[in-house]
């Protein structure tokens, strides 16, 4: 468009120049004589100018045609550009719409991906929990199988041990009877050698009384302190037997020779007997007794220490009855260590070796009602003067008894005892038998 307008301007300028020259020539012709040469020159100039004008006109025509062509081409180009602009605007609109749709689609995809990611995380967490539970269940199953196999193996081993166990009722009975016999013999030897000695210091006698009272009960302590025993020391004999019997009963029933632990272990064992098979409970009892003693005493021989303790108890009885006897003299004069060894053997046999049965030595306690089915009355009055009494109680025990605990059926918790050897007991009828002597003494 700019090139066409410049061509028009040039054409108009050329035309104005030609008109000016023609007008100037006419004025010059009028104002001065025309010379031939000048006229010729003028004609040449005019011809040249005319030619130039014609050329200028042709050029103007060409320029006009070119201008028209340029205008037409410009219109075409403008139309094309307009169409292109419209196209690109349309494309831009479509692109913007596509971008918006793409953005919305991408946002929706991202939202779906976030949901899928959360679902995947949840699935991974659930899968992890499931794997953990599966591993735990697998471990529990393996542990159960292992425990079941171990239990089966141990039960079989226990059954084999039980079948081979030589600590039968008769074997234990033999040792209990031997121990009772040794206690009776020792007490009889000591009472036979009993002699009244010099008067003891009242403080010594009082201390002896308290210890005897604790060992054999208050009634027997009063008998020893009140009566004269030189002529017939049968009360001294009873007290000596009762003291030794009570002491060995504690040794046999203990778990590890610590008094505070015995009640705890015994309570646990009784509960196990109610709910577990006998072989399992007996095996636990055996191992607990064995290793608790091993841990505390590391194989040391306890015989001498226990023998000295028994000697002190017997010395207190003799002092209270009026004799002079030191623990050292008693320990050296009588076979107390033999008694202790038999008691320790029973503690081991009953507590550790006996797996197929559950045996227990026992004595009757002071003031227990006399039960002839499970106790045997000891006769000490030479003239049989103990008065009959339908309701009698135990004064003290002078010999050990033995009983076996067992279940009648495995599905029943209650335990039943069978007395294999009745403990010998002195009854409170002895008090009535001694009463006439008491009245005569007064």
TrEMBL record:
Residues 39-73 form a coiled coil. Residues 1-28 form the signal peptide. This is MICOS complex subunit MIC60. It comes from the Eukaryota. Keywords: Coiled coil, Signal. It comes from Grifola frondosa (Maitake).
């Amino acid at each position: 468009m700019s090139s066409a307008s410049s061509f028009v301007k040039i054409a108009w300028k050329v035309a104005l120049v030609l008109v000016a020259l023609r007008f100037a020539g006419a004025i010059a012709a009028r104002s001065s004589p025309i010379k031939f040469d000048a006229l010729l020159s003028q004609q040449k100039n005019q011809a040249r100018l005319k030619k130039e004008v014609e050329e200028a006109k042709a050029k103007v025509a060409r320029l006009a045609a070119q201008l028209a062509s340029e205008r037409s081409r410009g219109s075409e180009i403008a139309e094309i550009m307009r169409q292109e602009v419209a196209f690109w605007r349309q494309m831009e609109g479509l692109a913007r719409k596509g971008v918006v749709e793409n953005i919305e689609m991408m946002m929706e995809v991202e939202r779906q991906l976030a949901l899928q990611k959360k679902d995947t995380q949840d699935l991974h967490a659930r899968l992890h929990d499931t794997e953990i539970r599966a591993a735990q269940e697998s471990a529990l199953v393996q542990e159960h199988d292992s425990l079941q196999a171990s239990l089966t193996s141990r039960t079989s081993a226990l059954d084999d041990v039980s079948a081979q166990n030589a600590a039968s009722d008769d074997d234990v009975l033999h040792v209990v009877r031997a121990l009772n016999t040794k206690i009776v013999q020792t007490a009889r030897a000591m009472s036979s050698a009993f002699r009244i000695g010099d008067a003891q210091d009242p403080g010594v006698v009082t201390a002896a009384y308290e210890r005897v009272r604790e060992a054999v009960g208050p009634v027997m302590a009063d008998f020893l302190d009140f009566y004269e025993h030189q002529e017939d020391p049968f009360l001294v004999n009873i007290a000596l037997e009762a003291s030794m019997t009570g002491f060995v009963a504690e040794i046999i029933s203990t778990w590890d020779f610590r008094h505070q632990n015995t009640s705890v272990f015994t309570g646990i064992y009784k509960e196990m007997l109610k709910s577990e098979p006998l072989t399992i409970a007996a095996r636990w009892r055996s191992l607990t007794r064995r290793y608790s003693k091993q841990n505390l005493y590391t194989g040391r021989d306890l015989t001498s220490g226990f023998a000295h303790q028994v000697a002190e108890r017997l010395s207190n009885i003799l002092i209270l009855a009026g004799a002079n006897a030191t623990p050292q003299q008693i320990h050296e004069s009588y076979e107390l260590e033999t008694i202790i060894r038999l008691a320790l053997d029973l503690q081991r046999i009953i507590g550790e070796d006996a797996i197929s049965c559950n045996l227990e030595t026992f004595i009757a306690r002071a003031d227990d009602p006399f039960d002839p089915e499970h106790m045997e009355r000891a006769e000490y009055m030479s003239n049989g003067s103990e008065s009959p009494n339908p309701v009698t109680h135990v004064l003290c025990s002078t010999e050990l008894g033995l009983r076996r605990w067992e279940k009648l059926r495995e599905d029943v918790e209650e335990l039943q005892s069978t007395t294999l050897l009745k403990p010998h007991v002195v009854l409170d009828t002895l008090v009535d038998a001694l009463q006439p002597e008491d009245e005569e003494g007064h």
